[in-house]
Amino acid sequence: MEGFRVIGGETLRGEARVQGAKNAVLPILAAAILPEGETVIRDCPDIRDAHAMAGILKKLGCECVWQSGEMRISSGGLHHWETAPRYGDVSRRVRDRHPAD
Fold first, then answer.
1. Residue 73 lies in a domain
2. Averaged pLDDT for residues 46-54
3. Is residue 58 part of a domain?
4. Could you tell me the CA-to-CA distances from 66 to 2, 40, 44, 71, 99 in Å, in that order?
5. What is the DSSP letter of 101?
């Protein structure tokens, strides 16, 4: 499946089990700032890029808690959207390739 198409004016709620490569978690983490409330990502891979992305989200004002393979992201404290150049050091870690990951 390449994606979801949502039509209508109703609020979406629910859960979706997503399987994919370890790097698939990066766009999922980025999308976690869109809904109000808390987003829970289960079986979140413990890779350097995911930790760097959590660092970016924290710098933007989100709360990120990683525990037992589960990442919980709350976007309630999100106070701005810009990541560069102020957060270039953190975002660069996501862009750089890490052979160990």
1. yes
2. 89
3. yes
4. 27, 10, 9, 4, 23
5. -
As for how many domains the chain has, the answer is: 1
Any domain includes 17? no
Stated pTM of the model: 0.66
Alpha-carbon distances, residue 62 vs 1, 19, 75, 80, 101 (angstroms): 29, 24, 5, 10, 25
The H or E element containing residue 66 is strand 63-67
62 Cα distance to chain centroid: 10
Distance CA 2, CA 45 (A): 21
Q: How many Å apart are CA 9 and CA 58, to the nearest integer?
A: 31
Its domain, for residue 68, covers 22-93
Instruction: Read off the pLDDT of residues 63-79 as tens digits, 9 standing for 90 and up.
Output: 999 998 899 999 888 87
64: CB partners within 8 A, 6+ apart: 54, 57, 58, 71, 72, 73
